[in-house]
Specification:
Layout: H1 13-22, E1 27-30, H2 43-59, H3 63-77, H4 80-88, H5 92-99, H6 111-119, E2 123-127, H7 132-142, E3 150-152, H8 165-174, E4 182-186, H9 193-198, E5 201-205, E6 230-232, H10 235-240
Parallel strand pairs: 1-2, 1-4, 2-3, 4-5, 5-6
């Protein structure tokens, strides 16, 4: 598929083509952080700061050195946790409990997003690098937790992060997902390569132009890779446009 439009506006011919493209989809898969809530939210910075604090306590490093090591592991292994498990065999449950112990009260419920997700025909799932507890608490804060059949958290992937093929295989098996009848929404472009190759429709969720974006520089793309079928800076509007 070569057409990769931005978020649809009012109903027009292009919208009806969009509806037709997604008509076969019966499983809707969403990343959590910076996807179901916008990247300008303070949630990820809060988690990021907790990861740095964990690194300081674990290694006795100063803040700058701890953060540099944190980001090195993130870039090399896909998550800081994966690097710590690989190189130091840390207890992952303790790490996840610590870094996700954050205040989510600044994240407003999103009833428009809830209605748009509820209107989708079929199953809805979350696939996240966060813990199950974090996914559940964050979805509850957004007012959308009741809409999801399941949440595939990093524990269920044996702490192996996206974009590893084995992680997606475990997700497909655990939730009986047929990739040829599924769509995935994600804010990191390279995490959509394996889903696209497996037959999923892929949607990259970007921040609005000029909005604050707390993601790492290497996670951001000005271009649109060929494994991304659609791009949107408004997840709710995109989902609303899929109503057939």
């Amino acid at each position: 598929m070569t057409e990769r439009p931005a978020a649809p506006g009012p109903r027009d011919v292009a919208d009806f083509r969009l509806v037709a493209t997604f008509r076969h989809v019966d499983t809707w898969v969403f990343d959590l952080d910076n996807t179901l809530y916008p990247p300008h939210s303070d949630l990820w910075p809060r988690i990021d700061a907790r990861i740095t604090a964990y690194m300081i306590a674990l290694f006795g490093l100063d803040g700058q050195s701890a953060r540099a090591l944190q980001k090195h592991y993130y870039r090399v292994y896909g998550t800081t946790l994966a690097g710590l498990i690989r190189e130091y065999d840390i207890a992952p449950d303790e790490f996840l409990h610590f870094v996700h112990d954050i205040d989510r009260s600044a994240l407003d419920p999103n009833p428009s997003l809830a209605r748009a997700i509820e209107a989708l025909r079929g199953r809805k799932l979350i696939l996240t690098h966060g813990s199950h507890g974090h996914a559940l608490a964050t979805a509850k804060q957004l007012g959308i937790d009741h809409l999801f059949e399941g949440m595939f958290a990093i524990e269920h992937a044996d702490y192996l992060p996206k974009p590893h093929l084995e992680t997606y295989r475990k997700f497909f098996a655990r939730h009986a997902v047929d990739p040829s009848r599924a769509a995935m929404f994600e804010d990191i472009a390279h995490n959509l390569a394996v889903p696209h190759a497996a037959g999923m429709l892929t949607v990259l969720v970007r921040p609005k132009e000029g909005a604050e974006d707390h993601r790492e520089a290497w996670e951001k793309h000005d271009d649109t890779p060929p494994h991304v079928d659609f791009v949107t800076d408004d997840l709710t509007a995109f989902l609303e446009a899929l109503k057939g």
